[in-house]
From TrEMBL:
Pathway: Amino-acid biosynthesis; L-leucine biosynthesis; L-leucine from 3-methyl-2-oxobutanoate: step 1/4. This is 2-isopropylmalate synthase. Homodimer. Pfam families: HCS_D2, HMGL-like, LeuA_dimer. It comes from Granulimonas faecalis. Its cofactor is Mn(2+). Catalyzes the condensation of the acetyl group of acetyl-CoA with 3-methyl-2-oxobutanoate (2-ketoisovalerate) to form 3-carboxy-3-hydroxy-4-methylpentanoate (2-isopropylmalate).
Amino acid sequence: MTRKIAIFDTTLRDGEQSPGASMNTEEKLVVARELIRMKVDVIEAGFPISSPGDFKSVAEIGRLAGDDCVVCGLTRAVDRDIEVAAEALATAKRPRIHTGLGVSPSHLRDKLRLTEDQAVERAVHAVRYAKSFVDDVEFYAEDAGRADIPFLVRIIQAAVDAGATVVNIPDTTGYNLPWDFGARIRSLVENVRGIEDVTVSVHTHNDLGMATALAMEAVRNGASQIECTINGLGERAGNTAMEEVVMAIRMHGEELDAHTGVDTRELTRASRLVSSITGINVQPNKAIVGANAFAHSSGIHQDGVLKARDTYEIIDPADVGAGGSQIILSARSGHAALRHRYEELGYAFTDAEFEPVYEAFLEVADKKKEVYDGDLESIVNERNRADEAIWTLDAVQISCGFPLTPTATLTLIGEDGNRITEVAYGTGPVDAVYKAVDKVVGVGCDLSEFSVKAVTRGIDALGEVTVRVTGGDGEVYIGRGSDGDIIVSSCRAYLNALNRLIADKRERA
Ligand SMILES: CC(=O)SCCNC(=O)CCNC(=O)[C@H](O)C(C)(C)COP(=O)(O)OP(=O)(O)OC[C@H]1O[C@@H](n2cnc3c(N)ncnc32)[C@H](O)[C@@H]1OP(=O)(O)O
Ligand SMILES: CC(C)C(=O)C(=O)O
């Protein structure tokens, strides 16, 4: 059996320190319920002395959690902070006070203005004072990543001797390289007496984009608790993302001799919940929970994933509650992906039928970022209309705007393959195009309806135009056309209606 690594979630404390991420008590309770459901080991619920609202959140989450997990409140190494935290945690069945102070030369000299001896004295006092309220006391050595290692060993030894149950080694400024941070943890594991009886926690920040790597290297060197947040929220560039460390441990459990108790299938839901409550979007390419984490948009990858998912996916999306892999159709997609999607939509093509569809798809895809199902249907419908066509559009050009007179120059191809070009003026660009069509086709009819709608979402959506025309004998014909350019869609729709009218006339003649 591998070692259990405790997951200490600090979304509601350090995560909330992200600018713009503050949450009220109700919102924190919603997140806490999700954290309990996903079986984290510890919830850091807030910093009780910082405001009455945070005090209330810690108290309410303490009540909510019951036996399910430890609930923790943060303090400075200040008596009043510790007293207030103890008061807030009185509702909790498994309370933990998290106290400590900065230990790097910069924090000691410039922020706290303490000598090393004074800092050790203050740490010992804070741990002992916290122990007078609760059994479970975690000591943090803030900015341990930049501390002198002999002093770090000394102050952690003092905290352990004073009764700390957990010692937290933060790389507060995300300064370390993973192997240097690992060596720090190893120094403590090898040099602090009694450390084997306490939990060694790490709390890493992402200032160099290495928070997860730092945490993994710490686990490899003896850490047994990771402090992290959903979506990597937290001060500045954020904290270690829970979804990343939990999945990295799951993927490499044997090598790390580690496992966690987190239900990974909740990771996506938790990510979306925190994003919607805080209003902070998750970047699409974010590991594990980003919208693109299991999306494939290039032909070679799509072909591979359709043959065997693990050619390009190391995680089964279902394992993190993300549903399934996604194939995104774009101009980089190949035949395999397009054919697969059409089959899912119920279309079957022979190879000969499929080739022109693929070419029409590429034409649309080159104009759009992403091709949606509605576009695919439109492409097929447009092709079917083209197959039946008597007159087809070869080219259309419009000149319009204020104060120009809208003018259309249009070329149509007839059944015999001949091209005919006409120019016409109109009250608007569509009117000008329709007048030019009338000149070429020479069929009398009334346009009784014209409507346009976007086939899919986005500014680059295909526009589908529907028209109704009434022929001389009162018969009504509907025409449709779609394209990224609505003048072209309008022209195609009108031609489609006229083609039907002409075909009908011929049939009846
Ligand atoms: C790395 C981290 O994420 S630490 C957690 C950060 N979280 C927060 O700061 C929570 C929100 N903070 C607050 O609500 C307030 O800052 C409070 C209530 C904590 C303190 O408020 P104030 O008393 O007004 O102090 P202020 O914020 O101006 O300054 C912080 C003081 O705490 C001291 N201090 C900072 N950390 C510690 C510590 N761990 N132990 C003891 N003292 C500390 C500072 O040196 C400074 O003291 P000084 O005024 O004597 O120079
Ligand atoms: C208070 C400590 C644990 C912290 O948030 C940090 O060092 O980043």
